[in-house]
Amino acid sequence: MQIFSFSLILLFSFISLLQAQNPQEKRADELLNRYWELNRFNGTALVVKDQKVVFNKGYGLADYEHNIPINNKTVFCITSITEQFTAYIALKVFEKKGLSLTTPIITFLENVKFSHADSLTLHHLLSHTSGFPDYPLIYELPKNQLFAKEDIIGHLENIAWSSNHVSEYHQSKLNYNLVGLILERVTNKSFGELLEEYICSPVGMKNTTLDDLTPMVKNRAMGYSVNFADGWFNAPYLDPSNTFASQGILSTTEDLLLWNNFIRKNYSQDKVLQDMLTTNESGFGYGLWVKRSEEGKVKEIRSLGGYSSGFNSFSILNINSDLTVIVLGNNRNPSSEDIADGLHSIFTNKDYTLPLPRKIVKIDSLILQKLAGDYKMNEHVTIKVMVEGDKVFVNDGMHPKHEIFPQSENQFFLKGVDGEMIFIKNEKGIITKIGLRDDGFTNAFAEKVQK
């Protein structure tokens, strides 16, 4: 009877906890739901504070064709978070073999042929300061044509590379894929084997693997794109071997938590992790971003913002607040970084931005009149904003005019697409430019032409 009574107490306590969602959890759920309602997020988020899980929830489906929901066991392509693992493996391998990061890459890739090849080192690749543009090769191939990762080397001489950009930070998937090729040649092992040897096995990450076309992966999420005209559809196919060491790892939020805990516990005494966290002027180390205190101590470690064909990801490890935020999604939208920042703010009691719903609000006509004018994007494109009564229209001179609909006094949306226009004021409250957002990207600005 005592055991039965104790069980009842535990049961009722659990039910009470479920019913009494705390304010932070409620705000976090509202944030994720808003992004999901806007079709800008489909995935899962995990927040751990003081070594306790404070938020862990999935939104949408892992597989829309088979109606399989997302949960904490769902396996995602982790896009650019992959680079943290590649950097760690590279540093461990080079340390073990007594190799230097300043050795020219032609030492390992003897078939490389392009100017200044002998001046590029593994350090340049790992720090994204090689001068290479972002990976152009795979996107120029005919649809569905396979591209072997080793073919990268033969195409390097055709890439518009300039030594003038060496030492400047510029993220390029090409950098980390070259690191992956170098590691395979130095060790005579596949990158998947190195991942298991240096990270998965020591850290205990049992649901992390290199993406591959052959093996079955339990609980794998499918990648999607979405637009307002067609709804959800399968993301364009991309051979995972094309981005194997830059965006090619599969994992879960639970496994990534193990990795973040490993960094948190060992970064102060592990030389490899210390080298990863040694940053350039921009704050980028090897495979991650680092924020430091005025005294130079590590405060926060952030992944690269990443999205690929059907997936997006972001993670934050705040050392000061003992807070970990991991966001994984299976739709091609760059929202994961914004969501992670929002969750970080919520659980550190700071202000955050909740995206506006696509709901039309009424705006006073006098306020609308202040929006009218010409906004110059570049020498070829000027956007004309016209106010006709209580309606606002835009025209870029190349397409028919479209009506835009107010979400607030300064933010409007287009129907039929995920497009928004934000009117931006200066410190005097005068509208000086507009920001254009497409599929979640704020990808252009246009300055108001003063008359």
Topology readout:
Elements: H1 2-19, H2 23-37, E1 43-49, E2 52-59, E3 61-63, E4 68-69, E5 76-77, H3 82-97, H4 122-126, H5 151-155, H6 173-187, H7 191-203, E6 209-210, E7 224-227, E8 231-234, H8 244-247, E9 249-251, H9 253-266, H10 271-276, E10 289-292, E11 298-302, E12 306-308, E13 311-318, E14 323-329, H11 335-346, H12 365-369, E15 373-376, E16 382-388, E17 391-395, E18 402-406, E19 411-414, E20 419-425, E21 431-438, E22 441-448
Antiparallel strand pairs: 1-2, 1-14, 3-4, 5-9, 6-9, 7-8, 10-11, 11-13, 12-13, 13-14, 15-16, 15-22, 16-17, 17-18, 18-19, 19-20, 20-21, 21-22
Helix pairs in contact: 2-11, 3-6, 3-7
Overview of this protein structure:
- The protein is α+β, with helices and mostly antiparallel strands and 451 residues long.
- The protein folds into two domains: 77-346, DD-peptidase/beta-lactamase superfamily (Beta-lactamase); 365-448, Beta Barrel (Lipocalin), CATH 2.40.128.50.
- Helices cover 28% and strands 24% of the residues.
- It is built from twelve helices and 22 strands.
- It has helices at residues 2-19, 23-37, 82-97, 122-126, 151-155, 173-187, 191-203, 244-247, 253-266, 271-276, 335-346, 365-369; strands spanning 43-49, 52-59, 61-63, 68-69, 76-77, 209-210, 224-227, 231-234, 249-251, 289-292, 298-302, 306-308, 311-318, 323-329, 373-376, 382-388, 391-395, 402-406, 411-414, 419-425, 431-438, 441-448.
- The strands form five sheets. The protein has an eight-stranded antiparallel beta barrel.
